Amino acid sequence: MKRISLAGLIIAASFVLISCQAGNAQDTKKYLSPGMVTLVDLGADKCIPCKMMKPILEALKVQYQGKAAVVFIDVWENRAAAKDFGVRVIPTQIFFDAAGQEVHRHEGFLDKKSIEDQLAKMGVKAR
């Protein structure tokens, strides 16, 4: 039983690492809010750390409404987005400035305070 679970985990991890290496900057632009700082969280609805991030992202959407966009993309439903953003592991959070340039990238769970700190470094203050 443990062998099957470990094998499944290795296969899933290999898929994410192999299939999502090269990014396409042009295709990522469609997820960004023009003229606004954007946080893109790439994860999956069934991923445990991603589930832990969901209430944080929902709170941030309200907290930064009109100041910064908060976008969630389920990479299990939208595999092309994972490839476009060069995702290696989920969740991955990518911060883009108002010009659409990537400023910061984090892999794994990211707490609300760390996200707020990064947005503040980018000149964004909560409402």
Protein model, in words:
A hairpin with a 5-residue loop joins strand 3 and strand 4. With 127 residues, the protein is an alpha+beta fold. It is globular. The chain has helices spanning 2-19, 25-28, 48-63, 79-85, 112-121; strands spanning 37-43, 68-74, 92-96, 102-107. The protein starts with a helix and ends in a 6-residue tail after the last helix. Strands 2-1-3-4 form a four-stranded mixed beta sheet, with helices on both faces. 28% of the residues are buried.
Sequence-ordered SSE layout with sheet pairings:
Elements (H helix, E strand, L loop, with lengths): L1 H18 L5 H4 L8 E7 L4 H16 L4 E7 L4 H7 L6 E5 L5 E6 L4 H10 L6
Keyword list:
single chain, 4 strands, four-stranded mixed beta sheet, alpha+beta, 127 residues
Quick recap of the structure?
The chain is of the alpha+beta class and 127 residues long. The chain is built from five helices and four strands; from the N terminus they run ααβαβαββα.
Q: Would you tell me the overall average pLDDT?
A: 85
Please give the number of β-strands: 4
Rounded radius of gyration (Å): 15 Å
Distance between the termini: 50 Å
Strand order, main sheet: write it out: 2-1-3-4
| Uncertain stretches of 5 or more adjacent residues | 5-22
Which descriptor suits the 3D outline? globular
Question: How helical, in percent, are the residues?
Answer: 40-55%
Order of helices and strands: HHEHEHEEH
Number of helices: 5
Quickly give the structural class: alpha+beta
Biggest beta sheet attributes: 4 strands, mixed
Q: Into which percentage range does the β-strand content fall? A: 15-25%
